[in-house]
Amino acid sequence: MKAFLDGREIDPKPVDGNIKVSELVDSVFQAFNAARLREACHLFARRFLSSDVTVGVSLSGALTPAGLGMSCLVPLIENGFVDWIVSTGANLYHDTHFGTGLNLYQGQPAVSDVELRREGVVRIYDIFFEYDVLLSTDEFFRKAISGDEFQREMGSAQFHHLIGKYLLERERALGVGQRSVLAAATQHGVPIYTPSPGDSSIGMNVAAMALQGSKLRIDVSRDVNETAAIVLEAKRSGGKSAVLLLGGGSPKNFVLQTEPQIQEVLGLDEKGHDYFIQITDARPDTGGLSGATPAEAVSWGKVDPARLPDAVVCYLDYTVALPILTAYALAKQKPRVPKRIYDRLSDLLARLESDYAAGAQHG
After folding, report:
1. Mean per-residue pLDDT for 138-166?
2. pLDDT for 361
3. Which amino acids are annotated catalytic?
4. Is residue 245 part of a domain?
5. CB 11 within 8 A of CB 207
6. N or C: which end of the chain has fewer CB within 10 A?
7. Residue 207 has pLDDT above 80, yes or no
8. What is the mean pLDDT of the chain?
């Protein structure tokens, strides 16, 4: 019986107005999902942020319009805590509002949507903005896409890198500071992928420009192979691969499928991601991927079975969890030197192609 009672005694200090976020996590988050968030904070700060770990992050839901891009993701990128990203197109589209100086506002969910439509106001639950924000952002993308550098086929990482350059220039011209995840990622060499390029307003504008003769095409096969190359290089260079999954959906799977792509499809020797944190409100028993646990991912080869102790699932709203995780990491760890993976993508992909060719010859 005593073997089950060797955990830390639950005896938190009283909370006062001077307590720091890191102290709150360490001393007060002692049970239930608060404890899981504490475990995630510890895993992120103590394992993910070692210099030899490559950190991939997936973004789903309405994360950027809620302000989590500029408040959390930009600081994580600037401090070298994020190395590559997979996001829905919607998050990147709404991120662009901020980078181009457009405004979103706090609102209330219990408002007539018929009245909002009549007033030209769009809402994402309790986030309100003018309909013209969409039109202005569409115009930004169409003007950018019309440039000569976009008139060819490319992966979504290169597309987002080029868009990020425009946003960097716009932010500097407006003097608004670093507000855009796309701009920060471009500045720090962090590649951003979108698994479903047509499933967002960005994709809709790319399609509209195609009707006008644009030669831009997004190469999804390149995206699959580049992300696999990032993970393979992380492991074969003697380091580790870590994934932080914010929500679920297609971005979650796109991050995790890198290992089955390496092992199952390409036939290369690998064991799965080393560190795993998922923040989700989805349940696993409904069969949806968003609630699938790291233990289930082991059966697919997505997570190294030997590393399951280094896997945490927090059943929380990430609008609450991510600011806490970010504040904890920044308080506990010094900045890392950015890996600037975007600058090395061609070399990483060439190595993957070489390994695959060598394996096929011996297969």
Report:
1. 98
2. 54
3. 302
4. yes
5. no
6. N
7. yes
8. 93
